[in-house]
Write a structure and sequence with these properties.
The chain is an alpha/beta fold and about 210 residues long. The chain has seven helices and nine strands; from the N terminus they run E-H-H-E-H-E-E-H-E-E-H-E-H-E-E-H. The protein has a seven-stranded mixed sheet with strand order 5-3-2-7-1-8-9, with helices on both faces. A two-stranded antiparallel ribbon has the order 4-6. The longest helix is centred in the middle third of the chain and has 18 residues. It is globular, with a radius of gyration of 16 Å.
Length: about 210
């Protein structure tokens, strides 16, 4: 599997002076998402997954339109959140807000909205990333190309899990808004193909 971990574009949660659980992209963030979609147009992805947070879904939208793929939302791919628990939109409301959104079969539709319990630690966030990675590995066993649009802290833990490192590792890859982490996953082998910004012609330079 070729896995592309993509951080969301700049959002109001990045620019706010007080912590916000969720929010949409800023104008700059929308430009970043467009540039990322243009970069990823040649990636050959066949599945596109996203966190349920608005900033991630809005980042995935230009890529969904570019590739004609739906945005498959995983409710447990939200950012690592140490604050109090909160509820996001219901699954129906999120799909109404973003027509590209679909949900995997079996997704529980809470009538009060999807729930983030909050109070996560570095370790519990890491364990959640491990479960997400295991799900991808079980679902994609061949040479599929898959993108997941998520968040800085979650993506970092995803990377640590993929590399077999502990959650306490000091490894901190480049992770600016709309950064792309491209991993080649095959059995026990992990190849780091690219870590950096969404640059034009990326797939002309790097060919696995």
């Amino acid at each position: 599997m070729e896995l592309f971990l993509i951080r969301h574009g700049e959002s109001v949660t990045n620019t706010s002076k007080t912590p916000l659980a969720d929010g949409g992209l800023t104008e700059r963030g929308r430009g970043q998402a467009d540039a990322m979609a243009a970069c990823m147009a040649a990636s050959g992805i066949t599945r596109l997954f996203s966190s349920p947070l608005m900033r991630a879904v809005e980042t995935a939208q230009p890529l969904a339109r570019q590739t004609q793929l739906p945005i498959e939302v995983w409710l447990d791919a939200h950012e690592v959140w140490t604050g109090e628990g909160y509820r996001g939109p219901t699954t129906e409301k999120l799909a109404e807000m973003y027509p590209e959104v679909v949900y995997p079969e079996g997704t529980e539709c809470d009538p009060l909205g999807w729930h983030c319990p909050g109070g996560e630690t570095s370790e519990t966030g890491f364990r959640r990333a491990e479960r997400l990675l295991d799900r991808l590995r079980q679902q994609f066993t061949q040479g599929e190309r898959v993108a997941l649009v998520a968040h800085g802290a979650l993506n970092r833990r995803f990377m640590l899990a993929a590399l077999g490192l502990d959650y306490s590792s000091s490894l901190r890859p480049y992770g600016d808004n709309c950064s792309i982490w491209w991993l080649g996953l095959g059995g026990s082998r992990v190849l780091i193909r690219y870590v950096g910004p969404a640059i034009p012609g990326l797939f002309d330079y790097i060919k696995p």
